[in-house]
Amino acid sequence: MGANNIHKEMIQVVEAPHPLIKHWVSVLRDGNTPSSIFRDAMAELGRLLIYEATRDWLPTIIREVQSPVGVSMAEFINPKEPILVVPILRAGLALAEHASSVLPSSRTYHLGMSRDEKTLLPSVYLNKLPDRFADGARILLVDPMLATGGTVIAAIDLLKDRGVENTQIKVVSAISCPPALQKLKIKFPGLQVYTGAIDPILNEKGFIIPGLGDAGDRSYGT
C-alpha cells in the first residue's frame, strides 16, 4: 500500500489512500449507518491504519526454522518489544479493537478523556497508563477525531510525563482537521499522524465538517 505523506515542518501526517480505507471512512460518514455497523467499520478502519502506521516500526528477530522440506532463516516480530496501544475512550476503543489481529505482540493501556461541550477542554476520568514507560517504547495513540486538538494534546502530555519522546508516538485517527494538526506541528516536532481523511472545516461547536458526527455516540448508540 502506498501513502500520501504531507510534511509539516518536522511532523509527518499520512493520509493513507488505500481504497479499503476510503471505503470504511465512507461507511462511517453515512448518517444512515446503524451503530453496530458503524462500530465494525471503525474497527476495520483502525486495523488498516495500524497496519500502515507500523509497516516500518516493528522490531524483528531472525531465527532458524524447519519447514516440511528444508531449513530456512525466518524473520519474526520480536515478542520482547511489544507495541503499546493507548486508545482514548470511548471511541478509541472501537478504532483500536482489531489492533491485536495486526500486531503479534502488543499491550493496551486505556485512557478515558471527555471534552466539555462548552469550553471544548478535555478532562481525564480514567488513566491506566504506567508511572513510567520503558526506554524506547513504541506507542500508538488512538484517537478517532482530531478536531480542536485539545484531547490528543492532553494525552500526549501524559505520555511525555512518563518519559516518552515525540518520535516514540504515532497517532492513529479516523478523521483529522487542520486546527488539530497545526497545534501538533507546533508542540510536538517528530510526531507522526496516520489518518483516514483530512477534512477542511471545524465548526463553532468543535465538530469536524463533513466529518462523521460524534464517534463515541455513533459507536455505542448512546
Radius of gyration over all CA atoms, rounded:
18 Å
Number of strands: 14
Low-confidence stretches: 1-9
Beta-strand proportion: 25-35%
Order of helices and strands: EEHHEEEHHEEEEEHEHEEEH
> How many alpha or pi helices?
7
Main β-sheet description:
10 strands, mixed
Helicity, in percent?
A: 25-40%
- Mean pLDDT, nearest integer? 91
Give the termini separation.
Answer: 35 Å
Task: Kindly name the structural category.
Answer: alpha/beta
Shape summary? globular
Note down, in words, how this protein is organized.
This protein is α/β, with parallel strands linked by helices. It is built from seven helices and 14 strands. Strands 1, 2, 5, 6, 7, 8, 9, 10, 11 and 12 form a ten-stranded mixed beta sheet that branches. Strands 3-4 form a two-stranded antiparallel sheet. Helix 1 (19-29) runs antiparallel to helix 2. It is globular and about 65 Å long. It starts with a strand and ends with a helix. Residues 1-9 have low confidence and may be disordered. It comes from Rhynchospora pubera. Its cofactor is Mg(2+). This is uracil phosphoribosyltransferase. Pfam families: UPRTase.
